[in-house]
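Hey, does this match?
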Amino acid sequence: MATLRSIRRGFTLIELLVVIAIIAVLVAILLPAVQQAREAARGSQCRNNLKQIGLATHNYHDTFFVFPCGIFAGLDYSASGGRGARGSGWFHQVLPYMDQTSIYAQLGQMMSAGTPVGGDNEIYRAPEALRRTQVAAFMCPSDLNAGSLLGPAHANGFRGSYVMCSGSTTLGTYGAASHVGPQNGMFYFQSATSLRDVADGTSNTLLGSEGLSRGTGIEYGGAGQYWNGYWGGPLFNASQTPNTSVAERIHTCLSTTYSSAPCVSIGGTGTDAGVFARSFHEGGVNVVLGDGAVRFVTENIDLSLWRSLATRAGSERVGEF
């Protein structure tokens, strides 16, 4: 009697190729969904950061009756209702309201009214280790260069992802009176804006937005340059729409070929200085308004509307955005 032998049969080549093709299709379908989910989470964290920054500026206003000074450009340390060394700005002033009291305390007398420390008391005289401290609340997770470090010594420090709005026009000429004079936004050089100054209404006025840096290296005036902000780095202007292809004009540009944030170097006397709102979020940027509300603004927003949102008392008619 013949013994029946079990026959073991594996995949044929065609079956194996079909299985591989099915797996490839599934991966192709799932990968974008995973990436979108991750970006959604990063976007949510970014909006939360802006929310906290907006709340911190209002808490500062409750204490000093003005919003933080955009940038201290002169030597009047007690001006504008704020406190700080030359080159410091809103970033340093809101630290105590962002659970960063320890960093603020280490700055000591540099952030207090009174006799200057160390010559003209530039903020870059703060300890290097302190300047290089990364503060997560000022870093957008979608920003590839968030937290990058700048040099040399007199520009050295942590760079963040958020910038405050100086208004609808450029900063003007570096070093000239127009550079340190009033702008039509809520934050500028030596600013002392209060709620009563925001005649357009806080819900119709930009407080801050996102900005992109170009990585670690030597740069003056790029977005998010908080330590030595004299060249305008803590601020942005709305003369161009978000994520514009128009190059930013700053003192010294780290990279003129960085496509996400193009720029040109204009030196210390260059005109039309300033940076623009930018982000790596698809299609636009997150902004925080004067009332603390956080919105996503499309990069296709009408330029005149975008500029109207940037002014604190322009009496413009602001529609839906």
Notes: Residues 15-310 form one domain.
